[in-house]
Amino acid sequence: MLKSRQDLQALAERAGKALKKEKLRILVCAGTGCVANGSLGVYEAFREELARRELPYKVELVREEEDAGTALNISGCHGFCQMGPLVRFEPQGVLYLKVRKEDVPEIVEEHILHNRPVERLLYHHPVTGQVVAREEDIPFYQNQVRIALELCGLVNPEDINDYIAHGGYRALEKALFEMTPEEVITEILESGLRGRGGAGFPTGRKWAFARSAAGEKKYVICNGDEGDPGAFMDRSVMEGAPHRVLEGMMIAGYAIGADEGYIYVRAEYPLAVKRLKKAVADAEAAGLLGDNILGSGFSFRIHIKEGAGAFVCGEETALIASIEGQRGMPRPRPPFPAQSGLWGCPTVINNVETLANVAPIISRGAGWFKQYGTPGSPGTKTFALAGQVAHTGLVEVPMGITLREVVFSIGGGLREGKKFKAVQIGGPSGGCLTEQHLDLPLDFDSLQQAGAMIGSGGMVVIGQDSCMVEVAKFFMTFVQNESCGKCVPCREGTRRMLELLTKITRGKATEDDLHLLEELALVVKDGALCGLGKTAPNPVLTTLRYFRDEYEAHVRDKKCPAGVCKELLSYFIDREKCRGCGLCARNCPVEAISGEKKQPHVIDPVKCIKCGTCMEKCKFGAVYTA
Amino acid sequence: MEGTGRKFEKLQEIIARHGGEVSHLIAILQEVQQEYRYLPEEVLTCVATALKIPPAVVYGVATFYAQFSLVPKGKYVIRVCNGTACHVRGSEPIHFALRRELGLAEGEQTTADLQFTVETVSCLGACGLAPVVTINDREVHGQMTPEGILQVLRAIKSGESKEERREAHA
Amino acid sequence: MSTGKVTVDGRVVEIGDARNILEVVRRAGIKLPTFCYHSELSVYGACRMCMVEVEGRGLVASCSTPPVDGMVIHTSTPRTRRLRRMIIELLLANHDRECTSCERSGSCKLQQLARQMGITEVRFGQRDKKLPVDDTSPAIVKNPNKCILCGDCVRMCKEIQGLGIWDFAFRGSKTRVTTAFGKPLQEVACVNCGQCVAVCPTGALTVKPEVDRVWDAIHDPEKLVVVQVAPAVRVAIGEEFGLLPGEKATGQLVAALRKIGFDRVFDTLFTADMTTIEEGMELLGRLEKGGRLPLFTSCCPAWVKYAEQFHADLLDNLSTCRSPQQMFGSLVKKFYAREMGRTPEQVVCVSVMPCTAKKFEARRPEFTTGGVPDVDFVLTTLELARMIREAGIVFNELEPEMFDNPLGMGSGAAVIYGASGGVMESVVRFITAHRSAGDVGRVDFYPVRGIQGIKEAELEIGGQTLKLAVVNGLANAEKLIGRIKAGEVFYHAVEVMACPGGCLGGGGQPYPNNTASRLGRMKGLYSLDRAEQLHRPQDNIFVTRALERWFGGPANANTHQALHTRYYPRRRISGKPVELNGRRDERPVEVAVCVGTNCYLKGSYDILNKFMALARQMGIADYVQLKGTFCLEHCDRGVSIKVNDEIITNVTLDNAEEIFKTRIAIKAEPPWVV
Asked: What band does B169 get if pLDDT is binned at 50, 70 and 90?
C-alpha cells in the first residue's frame, strides 16, 4: 500500500532495478487477435519448455525473490495482428511472427540457449525477401511514432509493477505534487491535444469548462465504446496498457475536481473489461486509487461499465444515459456534459486514446508533445488499417503524415497488386478519399475540408474492384441499424437513404432518386440531433462527390463498373470451359440452368436471380459475369 | 428441476448485489441473461418490481441494446463479424453459408432445436484477423471462409472440443 | 429574467423570461412548427421541425437552445425550409395516410403542418409493415401505424402521471412506442386518463368511440334514453364550434342533445351535489368517530384505479362515495326507471364526460343494477361534438334550452367539480354551512383554486383546524402520498384528480388540450359558479328532496347501498408466474408467492427463499411447486400466498415456517406418505 510520494518513488526504483536485471524478457502477445490465433497456447508452451529444460524464469516483475534473469510475460497488442501470434524478445526487440506452440522448443533451443534467432519465424519482406529481426525495423513499424500505444506490446498489462517500472503513475505523481489543477489544464491546453474519438475538440478546453462548472460532484468518463466497425485502437490500449487509461483519468479528475470516474467499455470487448477490472483492483490495492492517494489529499475511484451493444452509446449524451441505466438515446446539447452530464453533474468525457496521451504530456511536457504532428493537430493518431492493403493492423503515426505514406510505406501497398481506388476513413461518420488526396496531410482540419473526418481512425483501403455505391450502402446499413430512433432525420432519413442506395445498386433508380438522395443526405447532416446522425450521410456525400460517375453508371446505364452489384450482373457459362457436369444446374435454386449431360450448359437470364451459387459451385471456372 | 429455483435465487442475488439501483439496470440484465440465456418476460417484470420502475422502461432498455434477447438463444451462438474489415474481406458469404447450412429462414436467427443462433455483429475489434466468427463469445475464429465455418459447424455437431475445432481449421 | 436581446429575422426582441429560442421567436410573432415540444413536459428535441439558423452557430433546435444576448436568429432560410419540408415528407412516408377516415382528420398536427408546408408529394416508398391496432382498452385505441414517435405520450405518462405505461422499445427505424412487452393496454397499469391521447399529435392514440352504440340506442323506439352532462363539458364543447375555451355553451349544449334525440337531458351536477353531501357527511363522520384519515376523494376513476394498483393500503382512506357519474346511473336505474314505469334494461343511461377513464368506470362490475350497467355508454366531449356535427346541427345558431327535471338541477358547488380543487371547495361549502346554525353566506375558498399541481389549505371549523390538500396529476399525487406515508405531513382530506387542472383538462376534451385552454375552461367554470344562485349543495332542493324520498335522508344505510362502493387491490400487469421449480410428481401442491411490489417490499422474496429451503430440508422439494406471481390482489394484507386455490394473507418471515408446515407441507403428498 503506497501511502506517500516517497513510497511510489521507492517502488518505481525497485521495479526499475528488477527490470534492468532481466537479461531476457519473452513477451507473448495476448491481445484479442493473437489470443484468437492461439497465443495463450504458445505462452503455455514456453512455460512447459522452460520448465522441462529447468531454465528458471519469472512471471511477475517485482515480487519474485530470486533473480531468474529470464522473464516470461504476456503483453498487449502490437497492432500487427495479421501476423499473430506475435512473440517479442527483449531487450533486443526481436519479433517472431505467426508462432505456433510447436515452434516453441526450437525458439528456446536456438534463441535462448544459443542466442541465434529463428530466421524462418522472422519478418520476410514480401518484395525484397530481406529478413528483419527487430520489430522496429519492420517497414510496418518504421514510420510509426508510438505515444498512445508506446507500452502496448512492451509491458505486461496484468502487472501494475511492470507499468510502474516503465514510468507508470509518475505523471500522476507529478501532477499531484508539483502542479495545481489549473497548471495541469494549462499544460494540456498548451499541448494542443484534441479528442481522438471523433470531432477533435481540444481536450484542455473541455477540462477547463468542467473545472469552472458549478457543482460539488463531478465525473470523469472514459469513452471505451469504440463502435466504429473496423477500428480497434481503444481496445488495444485498454487491453495492452490499462493503467495508462486509469492514470489519464486520474489526472483529468485532479484537473477538473472530480473524485469519481467511469470507464464505459463495449460489451464486445470482454478481454478489455477483464484487464481493466484487474487494473482497477490492483491500483486500489496499491493505494493508487481510493481516498487520499499517496497522501496528496486527492481521492479518486473508478467503476467499469459494460455496454450492451449500441454504437450510438459512443455519443457523449447517449453514453451518459446508458451509464444511468437507460436507453442510449442522445439528448440535445446544450447543456453540454461539462455543464450537466452524468446525473446532472459536470462531466468530462474523453476517449481512450485521448486519455492515453495525457500521462506522457504531463511527464514530458507540452513542448515535447508538440514536436510531433502539425500546429493545428499536434501529436500522433492511431489508425486501424484494413481492407485491400497488404499489411493490416494498428498504426500510430504523427498527425500530418500523408495518406500515401500510411497506405504504401506502412501498409505495404495494396494486396495482390490491386490498383488503389479510395480510402474510407473515419468509419460510418467519415468519408472517402481518393487518389487526389494521397498527398493530403492527415490531420483534423484538412480531412474535414475534404469532407471526411478522422473519426475514430478506421481506415479502409479500397481497391479498384470495389463498388463505391456498395461501400456507401454498407455504411448506411450500419448506421441505419445503429440509429437510436429518436430524431426524425436520422431515424427516417437513414432508412430512406438506404432504400435509395439499394434501389441504385439494383438498377431501379432514376436521376430523380439520385437528386433526392443528395437532398436527403444534406437534410440529415443539417437536422440530426447527435453526431451519429449528423455524420451518417458523410459516406454518401463523399462518394457522391468523388465517384458520381459510378452512381450515374448504376442509374443511367444500369451497370456496376466494379462488377460488384449482383443485380446488375448477368451470369454466363463459358462454352469452352463447361464440362457439362451439371453441378451448377443441380444447385441452382430457381432452375435457371439447363443443358444435356457432358454438354455446355446455359443460364436462362429471365429466371436467374443472380445468387452466384453456380459460380461458387463450378469447379472449372466456367461461370462468369458481365 | 432444482435448476430453476436456484436461478430465481440467483436473480435475487444479482439484484441485491447491485443494491437495487436503477443505474445498474443494464448490468443486471446482462447478468440475468447469463443465467437464463435470454430475458424472460416474467423475470423482467420481477426486475422492474425490484427496481421500482415501470416494466415498460425495462422492456425499452432490453429491446434497445443488441446484446439482449427476449427469446431463447441456441446453445451455440455464432456471431459473424460484419465490421468494415470483415465485410471487405468477405464476411457476407460466410454468414450466408451458415444460414443455408442451418436452414434458417429469413428473419430467423435460431434453429428450431435451439442448438444454434446465428447473428451478425458490427465489429469485434479483431480486424487484423478479418473475417472473424465467434462462438459463444469466447471462441474466436479468424480469417474464416465459408468452407471453414462449415467445418467448424460440423465439428461442433460431432461433439469435438473447442481446442480440436481450433486445430481443425488452423 | 434576462435583460438581453436577440434579433429575430431582423427584429430586436427582448429575451425576458423566455426559456428557449422557440419562446423568444414566438414573441416576434413567429410560431415555429413543432411536434415534440410541450411547455409542460421536458424538452425532447427529436422532431427537429423547430430548427432555426443562428449566426455563427448554424442550425440549432430552438426548443432546446436558450437564447443568449446578441444572438442573431433567422427562422426562415433555404436550409430551414428544406429541412422542415423533408421532415414532413419523411414522416408522411412512414405514416398510415388514410387521412379521410382518420379520427383526427382536421385536428391532426401532421396533416396541418403538411398543408402549412405545402407538401403535395411524397417521394419515398410506403410504410412497409402494418402493425396491429390495440383496441383492448375500454378508453384508448392505439394505432401504431400512425405514430410519429414524438414521445409526447411517453413523457406525459411518465412525467405528469408518474406511470410510465408507454415507453420506446427497439431502436432505429424499428423504434416503437409501446406498453411493457407490447402487452395489450388492458393488461397493464394504464388508468385510462387519456392524457396520452390529449398530447398525441396524430391519430396514433385516440379515444375508443361509443358514438355508434349511442345512436343505436337513440334510434331504438323501445328505449328511454337519458343523458347526463358533466360540468367540464359545458365550458369546452364550444371550442369545437369556434368558441373560446371557457365560453359558456350550456344552453346550446342542452338544445343540441335534445335535437340529437335524447329523451331526457339531465345534469351530472345533480349527483355532484349529492356526492358532496354524502362525502361531506363521511368526512364529518370520520372526524367525529376517529375513522381513517386523510379522506381521499374518489370521483376520479383514474385515481381510483391508480390507488387500487399502487396503494392498496390506502383503499380504506378513499371515500366510499360513488362518483357523480355512477351515483347518477344508480339513481336512474334504481329509482328513476321505476318511476317511469320501466325496467333498468329499458332505460339507457348515457353520460357525456370530459374524461376517458369514465368509460372504464362505467364498466366496473360493482356498478350494475339487476345485472344491467348503471351507465350504459360514456361519450367524451369530442364524441358528442362529432354527433352534433353528424346530425347536421348548427351549434352556434341553437337557442339555449334548460335541463329536464328532476335530475337536471345543480348548485355552483357542483359546477366547480370540473376544476381541480372543486370537490374540496364544495365539501368546504357543505360542511361550513352544515356545522353552523346561522347563514354563513357565500364561501369562496380560493386556496384550493388554480392550476398548480399541489395546493394546501387550512379550514377553521368548530374550533378545529382542518388541513386540506388538493393535487392534480398522478405524479403529484404520488409525491404527496410519499410525504404522507413518511409522516412528513398530515391532512384531514385530500382531493386527487388525475388530469392537469382537473376534469376540465380530461383526456376527452377538445384539442388543443393545453395549459392555455385549461385556464380558459377553469375561468369559465368559476364564472358560472359566480352567476349561480344555488351556492352550496344543500341549497339544491331537488337533491335534498330526492335524498329524502328515495333514501329517507343522507348518509344512511340506504344511501350506502346505492350511492357508495368499495375498492379492490388490483394487479398491474398480466403475465405468467416465475416458475421456481418444476413438478415431478403427479400431484404436487402449488404455492404461488406474490412478488408484486407491495408484497415484494414486505419481504416476499425472503419468504420464497424460506419456503424453498424448508421444502428442501423436509425432502419434499419435488412435491411443492413454487412460483413467484405478480399480485394476488390482496396487497393490503400482504404478503399473500396462494396454496392451490386457497389464498393466505399476512404471511411474514416469522410465521412462514408455521404456515409452510401446517398449510403447505401437509398438502404435499410424496408417494411414501399416505
From this structure: very low
DSSP A347-414: EEEEEHHHHHHHHHHHHH-HHHHHTSB-SSSBSEEEEEEEESBSS-EEEEEETT-BHHIIIIIIS-SB
**Is residue A379 pLDDT above 60, yes or no?**
yes
Q: What is the pLDDT of residues C462-519, one digit of tens each?
A: 889 999 999 999 999 999 999 999 999 999 999 999 999 999 999 999 999 999 999 9
pLDDT of A6-16, one tens digit each? 999 999 999 99
Q: Which of C581, C595, C626 minimises the CB distance to B49?
A: C595
Task: Look up C330 and say whether it is catalytic.
Answer: no
What is residue C670's predicted lDDT score, i.e. its pLDDT? 52
Could you tell me if C578 lies within 8 Å of chain B, comparing CB atoms? yes
C37 Cβ contact list (under 8 Å, min separation 6) = C22, C43, C44, C47, C50, C63
As assigned by CATH, the class of the C211-563 domain is alpha beta
At residue B161, the pLDDT reads: 59
Q: How do the domains of chain C map onto residue ranges?
A: 2-76, 89-207, 211-563, 578-667
Per-residue pLDDT for C377 more than 90? yes
Question: Is B71 part of any domain?
Answer: no
Helices A233-240 and A242-256, packing angle to 10 deg: 100
Instruction: Read off the amino acid at residue C533.
Output: Q
The amino acid sitting at A568 is L
- In a domain, residue B83? The reply is yes
Question: Does residue C279 have an active-site annotation?
Answer: yes
Is A480 within 8 Å of C172 when comparing Cβ atoms?
yes
Q: Which residues in chain C are contacts of A509 at CB distance < 8 A? A: none
Question: In which domain, by residue range, is B80 found?
Answer: 76-169
Chain A: closest CA distance from residue B157 (Å): 21
Contacts with A281 (C-beta within 8 Å, 6 or more apart), sequence order: none
CATH 3.30.460.80 fits C89-207, yes or no: no
pLDDT of res. C580 = 65
Q: End of a domain among B40, B64, B88?
A: B64
Residue whose C-alpha is closest to residue A40's, from C259, B163, C557, C601 = B163
* Cβ separation A487–C46 shorter than 8 A: yes
- Annotated binding-site positions of B for [2Fe-2S] cluster: 81, 86, 123, 127
- B125–A32 CB contact, under 8 Å: yes
Task: Verify whether the Cβ–Cβ distance C90 to A492 is below 8 Å.
Answer: yes
Select from A333, A485, A522 the Cβ nearest to the Cβ of C175: A485
- Residue C583: pLDDT band with limits 50, 70, 90: very low
- Supply the pLDDT for residue A67: 64
C104 Cβ contact partners less than 8 Å away, ≥ 6 residues apart: C111, C202, C203, C206
Of C177, C99, C196, C178, nearest in space to C139 by CA: C196
B9 to chain C: closest CA residue: C609
Q: Is the dihedral of CA C557, C562, C564, C570 positive or negative?
A: positive
Residues B92 and B140 in one domain: yes
Asked if residue B86 and residue B154 are part of one domain, the reply reads yes
Domain count, chain B: 2
